[in-house]
Design brief:
- The protein is mainly β.
- The protein folds into 2 domains: 97 residues, Immunoglobulin-like (Sandwich), CATH 2.60.40.10; 76 residues, Immunoglobulin-like, CATH 2.60.40.2550.
- The protein has no helices and 15 strands.
- Strands 1, 2, 3, 4, 5, 6, 7 and 8 form an 8-stranded antiparallel β-sheet that branches. Strands 12-11-14-15 form a 4-stranded antiparallel β-sheet, with no helix packed on it. Strands 9-10-13 form a 3-stranded antiparallel β-sheet, with no helix packed on it.
- A hairpin with a 6-residue loop joins strand 3 and strand 4.
Length: 184
């Protein structure tokens, strides 16, 4: 738990979903809360602002916030929130480390737009089940599916009624967590 100047924060939970690095936090109440600035660092010392999220001003009700970092640095990313009031005063949250996905995954995706389908190939170290999700770049979940995997390479074809655009496919199971962007 951390407390920002004039905005009591109930929790700051930085999800460690390897595919999308979602940051979630909430406020129990706010007074003159203008915005949150999301700061990121590759070394936990030198932070750069990567986005802002509008605050709710003054409220006595719980507010939930989130941000998705679709362009993380290689390796471990360190995140910190800066809460800024309408008068310019600010407070910083604790620093949280999140390991980014390596781009050298064995996940391959083929968009079959004419068939309204996606074909993916993924390597599994053992027999298992996995959850497959497809999100648009705003983070909206478009498709969720489960698949049985065998040890080795698996090719899976999923129906996908998607509009033209860029999407992020994630496959997660025991000993398997991979993600890749694709164009449909």
């Amino acid at each position: 738990m951390w407390r920002a100047h004039l905005a009591r924060l109930e929790s700051s939970d930085y999800s460690r979903h390897l595919s999308d690095r979602k940051l979630h936090w909430s406020t129990a109440s706010e007074k003159d809360n203008d915005y949150f600035e999301i700061l990121r660092s590759g070394n936990s010392t030198n932070f750069t602002s990567i986005a802002t999220v509008k605050g709710s001003g003054t409220t006595q009700t719980t507010r939930n916030y989130n941000f998705t970092d679709y362009s993380p640095l290689a390796g471990t990313n360190y995140y910190q929130l800066k809460q800024v009031d309408t008068d310019g005063q600010s407070s910083l949250s604790k620093i949280v480390a999140v390991r980014a996905i390596e781009e050298t995954s064995s996940l391959k995706i083929i968009a079959l737009a004419e068939e309204q389908a996606i074909q993916l190939t993924a390597f599994a170290e053992q027999n298992s089940t996995a959850q497959i999700t497809i999100n648009d770049l705003s983070g909206k979940r478009m498709i969720t599916n489960r698949a049985s995997l065998i040890k080795g390479y698996n090719t899976i074809k999923l129906p996908a009624s998607l509009a033209k655009g860029i999407y992020v496919l994630t496959i997660q199971g025991s000993n398997l967590s991979q993600a890749a962007k694709f164009i449909f």
